[in-house]
Specification:
CATH topology of the largest domain: Thrombin, subunit H
Family: Belongs to the peptidase S1C family.
GO molecular function, one term: serine-type endopeptidase activity
Order of helices and strands: EHEEEHEEEEEEEEEEHEHEEEEEHEEEE
Protein name: PDZ domain-containing protein
Pfam families: Trypsin_2
InterPro entries: PDZ_sf (IPR036034), Peptidase_S1_PA (IPR009003), Peptidase_S1C (IPR001940)
CATH class of the largest domain: Mainly Beta
Strand content: 35-45%
Oligomer: single chain
Number of helices: 5
């Protein structure tokens, strides 16, 4: 069964169906690193998306069109200047337009690449007039530090003009992305992130450190940002010869080994740590290498603790699945395990989950597989 974390929601502005909380905005002005006074703001765009979703009760037709708005920003990617935004904003879209800050003209855009699992999409505009005098934002290579000041720029509900909210980084860990029910690295900030902020940049010192994408319903000051390592992973994959490759996953079910009697039963010494492998998907990249009953003690020579976490230079501890998700498809990983009381070393080529039926989760509801679209 697929479960979606309660309370988490995507943030495109979808008419009256989305419950909206109040928020406070800071006046747009000089941002850190913005020498021109509005250079960062000029790279932010408003996205107008017309979406037509499949109707599962009548799969031969789609539901009526819905009109949504959100945010995006111009950035230099491996394939040139493009607009980055959220996948949930342009999923099932039939028509997309974008409008630059300070302009009244809308330009038609096309979805050039889209990744549901990390909720990132890349748009292109054919009209070269749109790109004139564009000052693209630059993606940082690293994640922010705890307590760093972050500004979120976008077009949330409550008005038509650009809005800037500010806050600090309060947590960095693996979080469930509600659009596809996947768990990837996310940055939690206490800046106001509301409906319509989806796709807007999270900026620090003139650098983009993430993309706003969801908040926690019923809780004030809990918003989430897709960090740049996840965005870079998406962009690098889009630029590869084989096209977009999804995020890697071991596809195993693990159990913590914090119980001393359980550790003793599986032959672990006092200084050993790791997680117990309970189940392995038949099509997993480690099927035939790892076995149920193995204790996974390291990934790429990074020790795994009994609670499934590994050391991280910024967050302190983070789930070891983060290391797996940052691997590229086909990249080799070193696995350390305990089997029948003996330590073994294994090598495995990392792969994305190989689902027999393509699916994803969207707005906490099961959505169409590829065979619904002709």
């Amino acid at each position: 069964m697929i479960r979606v974390a309660p309370g988490l929601r995507c943030l495109s502005l979808l008419g009256p169906r989305i419950w909206i909380r109040g928020y406070q905005t800071a006046s747009p002005g000089l941002l850190p690193g913005d020498r021109k006074g509005n250079g960062l703001l000029n790279a932010v765009v408003k996205v107008f998306s017309t979406q037509s979703t499949p109707d599962f009760s009548m799969p031969w037709q789609n539901k009526p069109h819905e009109y949504t708005t959100g945010s995006g920003f111009i950035s230099r990617t491996p394939v040139g200047l493009r607009i980055l935004t959220n996948a949930h904003l342009v999923a099932d879209t039939t028509f997309v337009q974008v409008r630059k800050h300070g302009n009244s003209e809308r330009f038609e855009a096309s979805v050039e690449a889209l990744a549901h699992e990390c909720d990132v999409a890349m748009l292109n505009v054919e009209d070269q007039k749109f790109w004139a005098n564009s000052d693209p934002l630059v993606l940082a290579d690293e994640i922010p530090q705890l307590q760093d000041n972050i500004s979120v720029i976008g077009y949330p509900t409550g008005g038509e003009n650009l809005s800037v909210t500010s806050g600090v980084v309060s947590r960095i860990e693996m979080q469930q992305y509600t659009h596809a029910a996947t768990s990837l690295l996310a940055v939690q900030i206490d800046a106001a992130i509301n409906s319509g902020n989806s796709g807007g940049p999270a900026v620090k010192d003139g650098w983009v450190y993430g993309i706003a994408f969801q908040n926690l319903a019923g809780a004030d000051g809990i918003g989430f940002v897709i960090p740049t390592p996840v965005i870079h992973h998406f962009l690098d994959s889009v630029n590869s010869k084989s096209g977009y490759q999804r995020f890697c996953d071991l596809e195993v079910k693990c159990q913590d080994m914090e119980n001393d009697h359980l550790r003793e039963y599986y032959g672990m010494k006092a200084h050993d740590s790791g997680v117990l492998i309970n189940k392995i998907a038949p099509l997993s990249s480690v099927s035939g290498l790892l076995k149920p009953g193995d204790v996974l003690i390291s990934f790429d020579d990074v020790a795994i603790a009994n609670d499934g976490t590994v050391d991280h230079p910024i967050t302190g501890r983070i789930n070891f699945q983060h290391l797996v998700s940052m691997k590229k498809v086909g990249e080799i990983a070193m696995l350390g395990a305990i089997r029948d009381g003996k330590k073994i070393k294994l090598t495995a080529a990392m792969a994305a989950p190989n689902y027999l039926v393509v699916w994803f989760i969207h707005f906490s509801t099961l959505r169409h597989a590829s065979f619904f679209r002709q």
